[in-house]
Amino acid sequence: MRKYELMYIIRPDIEQEAVDAAVEKFQGIINNGGGEITKHDVLGKRRLAYEIDKFRDGVYVLVNFSTESAVVDELDRVMRISDEVVRHLVVNDVA
């Protein structure tokens, strides 16, 4: 299993319950695929560097985890089609 770092930004105009549901959904994909989450931080609402889809703010979430590459592919696919995610990035964690 490899270590990965995931940063994603959730739309600021949805309710807190929807934010929690989205976070749980993405954690479930990692856990159900046999992965292990080592660190999970909801950094809260922050200002974006530039406007994305007419949003100036977003709820930032940072996740460090280890899993197989097939789970990362599935996580990437689900995040691309999720309406609540504005941007996401998964990178190999070398530290």
Automatic annotation (TrEMBL):
It comes from the Bacteria. SUPFAM superfamilies: Ribosomal protein S6. Keywords: Ribonucleoprotein, Ribosomal protein, RNA-binding, rRNA-binding. Belongs to the bacterial ribosomal protein bS6 family. GO terms for cellular component: cytoplasm; ribonucleoprotein complex; ribosome. It comes from Chengkuizengella marina. InterPro entries: Ribosomal_bS6 (IPR000529), Ribosomal_bS6_sf (IPR035980), Ribosomal_S6_plastid/chlpt (IPR020814), Transl_elong_EF1B/ribsomal_bS6 (IPR014717). GO terms for molecular function: small ribosomal subunit rRNA binding; structural constituent of ribosome. Pfam families: Ribosomal_S6. Binds together with bS18 to 16S ribosomal RNA. This is Small ribosomal subunit protein bS6. One of its GO terms (biological process) is translation.
